[in-house]
């Protein structure tokens, strides 16, 4: 890392920026106007159309017009400012346009000739542990629906982003978004073949490629990125939605991406996208565009100041270059972090992990290496009559959450391709310390089955999910998912769950990668997009699933207790587990039985927890724990219950959500959750009106039943006799005389007026008196 930073600032002033924007969108606006003049605003079917070779600058465009991005010196930032075009997607007519390009085309021949030496630097061999799959599946599939289909481009390079209510997906070279039930709301081309194409209003031409998308859960925005390259010009197009609904306004920027290294210019290929608290990031390989220099320029790291892009204001863009990196992927950051994370390959036995310090003020690289199990480049994967290019051993995606860094790629192991994943601990790096490998594993699909195109993510419970392609000489390419609970043996994941399988073989540069995201609504459900082949070409599938940790093997031996309580009496119950052994991987929901009452007599007023599941059973509390309990460890629950006789046909129960286990030994749960219960009258002396049997529960993650989660203990509350608390004059009748006595006691704050036994005479006691007075006691 350089001890100091020298800045080359190429600021586009506002007026110049407007001129640049006008020049760049001029051709696009003309094309759009011509189409609308002929076709009006009516929806139109889009027929098969030939594709013109894109390697020609658009009219009025040339490299000389663009701000200069000089990255001749490594670790020295170049900076420009670019203005936005604000566009409302709802003005696109029609909202859904199917495009067909016949015959299908492969992207690479339309790009400038490019090549780099992919020989993997030999690392020091090691025998680090490497996990694999276990026999039990960990995936519970949920919603699924068809994604984008054959656009005429190979490979499709599918990517997806998931917001609160929508899924956005991109491929070469289309964009679409859907509701989470699969209703497609928008479909269009990314370039000028649309009406207008998604990036056409900002000036994009007829060749947009390598699109990617993501959802920034920190700001609640969708982000879409696509690349362009022509004879002497190149661009990174980026769009940011104005809120969490992709329908509507987008702020779109067409940012110059011709990089000068000495007298040679370079264009950007194979992007990575990610974000942290303050910026969006795009990485990309640099290949020669024009000049006499070398054909390989390293990697560009582009920093977009996030704040102005959220309102469509001009954005300051900073670029850095690293000549020693290749095919870098950017982490999508979950949890607080003002710094980004990048991962690429260093050698056959090491990863290159990077960050950028002071990204918005004085950006500079921080770089470290992490030793990992030795691997080698993959080979083409057989798929029942064809051979799919697995590209190479490059990193496919990166995910960071609260100090845990995950990355995936494909390697050759045991004579076949196997997806591999890594879990690293970033600690306080790059501020201090280093990055260490926590665990890693291969995804062995079984005899003869190759796995490739992996993508990985984690959720709030630190469960990990992975999606990958699978195929063999007798099996068409399929989409598969697996996962692991937070505390499972290191390096292991569950058996592969096949989500969909193709019906035709595929060959050549077919896929490139899959993608995965976490649902921001629950930070638990995973969504993925993958590819398969049918007779009409490639298809994508969008699926959601949850990772189901193994059934806990836990026994709590409770100190059982039994209590009697008078109506209106408050009671505190303490449950002590004198021994808790085994492992508990998921959150639990307590089922509480109120004897003698039907489910219809009780309902959950807490909002967010399940109501009655079977007659008399309903959930009143939830505990989430991800701990290994030590033998003879103490686990304490203090439960406050206020038992009040009420009136009417129904009753209610307010639940107390018990937060995750706190640290320390022994582990403790919040000691003061409050349960309030109301039940209809009719209980007689000796009846059990509250009976909590800790014998059955439900996991909070995925709703998987647990048997014998709690054992050997129960709590019982029975009704006992007491004097009617509102017969205050003791004459055996509840009448107006008692009302006058209560008012007198209430006004003086007398303890006899404390009917709810909370130590305070207040309006709650008045309401309690009125309720009991109305029913005669």
Question: What features would you describe in this structure?
Answer:
This protein is mainly beta and 777 residues long. The chain is 7% helix and 44% strand. Strands 1-3-21-20-19-18-17-2 form an eight-stranded mixed β-sheet.
Class by helix and strand content?
Answer: mainly beta
Q: Strands across the major sheet, in which order? A: 1-3-21-20-19-18-17-2
Mean pLDDT: 76
Distance between the termini: 79 Å
Report the major sheet. 8 strands, mixed
Strand proportion? 35-45%
- Coarse shape: globular
Tell me the total number of β-strands: 53
Helicity level, as a percent range?
under 10%
Low-confidence stretches: 1-50, 552-722
Pick out its properties:
777 residues; mainly beta; eight-stranded mixed β-sheet; 4 helices; 53 strands; 7% helix; globular; disordered N terminus
Topology of this protein?
Layout: E1 8-9, H1 14-39, E2 69-70, E3 78-82, E4 85-88, E5 105-106, E6 133-137, E7 139-149, E8 153-154, E9 159-162, E10 166-171, E11 174-179, E12 184-189, E13 208-216, E14 221-229, E15 234-241, E16 249-256, E17 259-261, E18 264-275, E19 279-290, E20 296-305, H2 306-309, E21 315-322, E22 329-334, E23 342-347, E24 350-357, E25 364-371, E26 381-382, E27 387-388, E28 397-401, E29 404-413, E30 416-425, E31 436-443, E32 450-458, E33 464-472, E34 475-484, E35 493-495, E36 497-501, E37 515-518, E38 526-534, E39 537-547, E40 553-558, E41 561-565, E42 570-584, E43 587-593, E44 617-624, E45 627-629, E46 635-645, E47 653-654, E48 656-658, E49 674-679, E50 688-693, E51 696-699, E52 705-707, E53 714-719, H3 736-748, H4 763-774
Parallel strand pairs: 1-3, 2-17, 5-8, 6-35, 22-28, 41-53, 44-48, 46-49
Antiparallel strand pairs: 3-21, 4-16, 7-39, 9-10, 10-11, 11-12, 13-14, 14-15, 15-16, 17-18, 18-19, 19-20, 20-21, 22-23, 23-24, 24-25, 26-27, 28-29, 29-30, 30-31, 32-33, 33-34, 34-36, 37-38, 38-39, 40-42, 42-45, 42-46, 43-44, 43-51, 47-49, 50-53, 51-52
């Amino acid at each position: 890392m350089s001890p100091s930073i020298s800045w080359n600032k190429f600021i586009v002033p506002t007026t110049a920026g407007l001129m640049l924007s006008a020049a760049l969108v001029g051709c696009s606006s003309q094309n759009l106007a011509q189409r609308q003049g002929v076709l009006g605003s009516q929806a139109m079917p889009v027929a098969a159309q030939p594709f013109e070779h894109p390697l020609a600058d658009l009219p009025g465009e040339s490299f000389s017009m663009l701000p200069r991005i000089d990255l001749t010196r490594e670790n020295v930032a170049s900076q420009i400012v670019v203005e936005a075009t604000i566009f409302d997607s709802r003005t696109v007519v029609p909202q859904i346009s199917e495009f067909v390009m016949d015959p299908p085309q492969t992207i690479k021949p339309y790009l400038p000739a490019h090549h780099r030496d992919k020989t993997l630097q030999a690392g020091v061999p090691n025998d680090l542990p490497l996990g694999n799959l276990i026999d039990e599946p960990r995936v519970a599939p949920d919603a699924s629906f068809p994604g984008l289909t054959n656009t005429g481009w190979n490979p499709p390079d599918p990517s997806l982003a998931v917001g609160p209510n929508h899924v956005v997906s991109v491929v070469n070279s289309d964009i679409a978004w859907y509701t989470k039930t699969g209703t497609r709301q928008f479909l269009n081309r990314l370039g000028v073949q649309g009406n207008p194409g998604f990036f056409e209003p900002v000036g994009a031409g007829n060749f947009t490629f390598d699109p990617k998308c993501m959802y920034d859960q920190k700001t609640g925005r969708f982000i879409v990125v696509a690349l362009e390259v022509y004879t002497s010009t190149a661009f990174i197009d980026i769009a940011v939605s104005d809120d969490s609904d992709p329908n509507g306004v987008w702020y779109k920027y067409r940012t110059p991406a011709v990089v000068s290294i000495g007298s040679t210019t370079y264009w950007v290929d194979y992007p990575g996208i990610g974000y942290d608290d303050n910026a969006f990031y795009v990485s990309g390989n640099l290949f020669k565009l024009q000049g006499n220099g070398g054909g390989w320029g390293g990697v560009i790291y582009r920093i977009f100041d996030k704040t102005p892009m959220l309102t469509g204001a001009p954005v300051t863009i900073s670029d850095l270059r690293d000549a020693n990196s290749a095919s870098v992927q950017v982490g999508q950051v979950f949890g607080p972090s003002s710094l980004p994370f990048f991962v690429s390959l260093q050698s056959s036995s090491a990863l290159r992990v990077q960050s950028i310090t002071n990204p918005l003020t004085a950006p500079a690289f921080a770089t470290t290496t992490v030793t990992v199990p030795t691997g080698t480049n993959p080979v083409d994967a057989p798929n029942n009559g064809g051979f799919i290019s697995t590209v190479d051993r490059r990193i496919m995606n990166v995910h960071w959450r609260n100090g845990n860094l995950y990355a995936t790629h494909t390697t050759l192991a045991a004579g076949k391709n196997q997806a591999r994943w890594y879990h690293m601990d970033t600690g306080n790096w790059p501020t201090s310390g280093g990055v260490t490998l926590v665990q890693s594993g291969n995804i062995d699909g079984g005899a003869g089955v190759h796995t490739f195109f992996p993508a990985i993510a984690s959720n709030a419970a630190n469960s990990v999910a992975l999606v990958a392609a699978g195929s063999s000489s007798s099996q068409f390419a399929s989409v598969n998912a697996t996962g692991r609970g937070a505390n499972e043996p290191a390096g292991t994941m569950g058996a592969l769950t096949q989500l969909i399988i193709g019906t035709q073989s595929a060959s050549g540069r077919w896929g490139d990668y899959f993608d995965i995201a976490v649902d921001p609504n629950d930070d638990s459900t995973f969504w993925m997009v993958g590819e398969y082949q049918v007779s009409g070409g490639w298809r994508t599938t969008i699926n959601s699933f949850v990772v189901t940790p193994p059934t806990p093997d836990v026994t709590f031996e409770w100190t059982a207790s039994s209590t009697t309580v008078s109506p209106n009496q408050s009671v505190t119950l303490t449950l002590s587990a004198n021994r808790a052994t085994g492992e508990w991987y998921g959150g639990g929901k307590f089922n509480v039985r109120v004897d003698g009452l039907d489910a219809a007599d009780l309902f959950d007023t807490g909002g967010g927890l399940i109501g009655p599941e079977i007659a008399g059973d309903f959930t009143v509390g939830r505990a989430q724990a991800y701990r290994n309990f030590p033998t003879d460890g103490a686990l304490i629950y203090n439960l406050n219950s206020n038992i009040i006789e009420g009136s009417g046909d129904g009753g209610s129960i307010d639940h107390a959500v018990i937060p995750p286990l706190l640290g320390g030994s022994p582990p403790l749960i919040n000691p003061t959750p409050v349960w309030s219960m109301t039940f209809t009258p009719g209980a007689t002396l000796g009846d059990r009106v509250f009976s909590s049997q800790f014998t059955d529960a439900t996991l909070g993650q995925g709703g998987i039943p647990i048997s014998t989660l709690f054992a050997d203990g129960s709590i019982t509350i029975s009704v006992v006799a007491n004097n009617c608390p509102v017969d205050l004059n003791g004459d055996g009748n509840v009448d107006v005389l008692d009302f006058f006595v209560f008012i007198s006691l209430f006004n003086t704050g007398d303890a006899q007026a404390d009917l709810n036994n909370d130590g305070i005479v207040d309006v709650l006691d008045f309401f309690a008196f009125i309720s009991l007075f109305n029913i005669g006691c």
